[in-house]
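Final report, closing paragraph on structural work. Over the funding period we assembled a curated collection of sequence-structure pairs, and we close with a single example.
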Amino acid sequence: MFFGEFQHTIDQKNRIVIPAKFRVFVSEKEDRKGFIIGLSVIRNEPCLYMYPYSGMRKVIEDVQRVIGSAPDGDDLLRLFSTNAEFVAIDSQSRIVIPQKLIDAVRLPKEVILTGVIDRIEIWSAGDWLERQKGHGGLKERLIHLSRGEGTEGSSGRSN
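Its predicted structure, as stored:
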């Protein structure tokens, strides 16, 4: 599980350090090898998603279940899978972000890494600040939802 937000700088070789507080939750042997990083093709957000290998298996199962039987299911699966790559974690806890993905979401050197329970998101610092400005009523909404006061107006959650 991933929680918190961290400001980082992408270096000249497109590397970024995975924060220690995130690495604590990467415990399975296969997960310590690296992450699957990709575009937010389903939600179309201007950020990159990073899943540990074990978490990505669940996402893939969900995606295949939801879109696998659609008439254009194969094309949707291709869109999903061709916009993601495995990135290894080096001995200094860094990953290299593929240039293709940096270009796709226009990531500058200054980025914010956010923990979103089952994934890490990488945002442009500017895009993240703008997004935070638009969250004015979310805390109140969360309080209402936690009290069981309805879900009207919810956009739902899907990967």
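Confidence is low (pLDDT under 50) at residues 154-159. The radius of gyration is 17 Å. We thank the funder for supporting this effort.
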